[in-house]
Protein 1
Amino acid sequence: MTTLAETVSDSVTITRRNLIKVKRVPDLIVFATLSPIMFVLLFRYVFGGAIDVPGDVSYAEFLLPGIFAQTVVFGSTITGASIAEDLQKGLIDRFRSLPMSRSAVLIGRTVADLGLNAISIVVMALTGLLVGWRINTSFGEAVGGFVLLLAFAYAVSWLMAVVGLLVRTPEVVNNASFMVIFPLTFVSNAFVPLESFPSVLRTFAEWNPVSTVVQGARELFGNVPAGAPPAEAWSLQNPVLYSLLWAVVILIVFVPLSVRLYVRTSTR
């Protein structure tokens, strides 16, 4: 039975190992930074002229919180693929042979991927500033917006850890994650106002946690269109609270589940 101090120490070691791996595999960091730039420029200049945003706000300001949310959620899939790769290569068995906390491998993996998501957000924010995005609130509220995005992404990383432990093949993890995350991000308010959705899809989008993360980020960045119709759903009236509740529930369910699966998987 490891102590809390030992778990923290082991987790820091695994986090450092994963970050060193990123430095030695530059392709990972290159694509983690180029993809956000591509999405920002694509939606800003290809779709921006065709999408009408109600209220007094530019499409760039409406768009960027949605791009932030989409990128960090997709970025969280790296957790599942990386765990599946470590299982496939037998690295998990090597970790199991060491006198270390079982949860440290998962904590180190999710924290390292949180760092990658933070880098992606910085790159997107700088790109967004170049194409017309602005933060119209205080420094503290802006920090709160970034923290909200990263907190939700961190929770999704633990969900993806479960997928990686169950599937064990990086390619299948990517395909399975894409089938779930793609509709969640696009059937949301990330790129277009919900008023344009059919009634059934609109109801789903209103209670979709990706929508509330986007809405919460827009409010904290001051990117909510002035004069836009007020939200009817409770989730969008209280987007920060609703998003954090989702993050807490995901962590409560998937942290112990992933640790249990890790122990069972590594002892086979």
Protein 2
Amino acid sequence: MEENKKKQTVEMTAEELEAFTAFKAKKAKDEAAEKRKQARATYCNLVDETIAESIPVLLSLSEGIKETKSAIMDNFRAVIDMKAEVMKLAKDDQRSHTFTNSEGNKRITVGVYVTDGYRDTVEDGIAIVKEYIESLASDAKTKSLVSMVMRLLARDAKGTLKASRVVQLRKVAEESGDERFMEGVQIIEEAYLPAVSKQYIRGEMKDTNGMWKTIPLGMTEA
């Protein structure tokens, strides 16, 4: 025979009930805060473990890419040497080389990225060009020329004069026939000091529609 459980009733004053209710709310709040703290600790541990597992994989991939790039560059060095000999080309003058197979459905481009740079004397050349060109601003025609030349002398976000613009500047100087203008441009050209930054390799294949598709070699493209 089951015995009936007796319920005990505790009588509280209003003040005691308020205090008890506050105690229960605080306890519940503390328990919830502790659970969140434990969840954050679990999350941090998971992040640490995942990073520890992933970094070696990425290092291995990076080393593999480095070795593959070096091997391909070495392979094409002989091809580039033969190309220079057969085509009577100066190897140092060409910054990129594209090779296509006989079927015309695969090709590889190897080259180097080059950043524009100049010796300090470039400032002298720019000063000469500006001095000459600003002296011409007398009518609408010459003001237009001044504006165009000043745009060609504008520097990029890194403060560097673009070599491609200097080529255009030379054409303008040659058309003007002015020796002082030409001298300034020549000083700028002589100050040109390009720097090779990185080697690159690009592989491409034609798809079923005959369109060239780049082989994804980076983490973003793959």
